[in-house]
Amino acid sequence: MLVGVLEVTLSLxxxxxxxxxxxxxxxxxxxxxxxxxxxxxxxxxxxxxGLAVLGFTVCGSEGRILNGVLDHLxxxxxxxxxxxxxDSFLDCAAWGETGxxxxxxxxxxxxx
Length: 112
Hints:
Layout: E1 2-11, H1 18-35, E2 39-44, E3 51-60, H2 63-80, E4 84-94
Antiparallel strand pairs: 1-3, 1-4, 2-3
């Protein structure tokens, strides 16, 4: 099994409150979940009103397809978000039968 991971950092310029940020993030996550078959959540900077870090995962058996889904998802966010993408990280890794990552340890964004 392969697992695809996409982390997207958004700048919410002009946003002045956490309530405003939650509205933008909830709207975007709802649209992504409705359009793509992925898991999605806010995964960082929860207490920062001008920044949002979102994480998306998808699993399957072909890395080419997973990369395509996540690339398409990133393009969708860039075209439809009420925020600007300032950073993104995409990776696919194999999950072995023994429950480990095999030869590929997943990278930790910002730590490698």
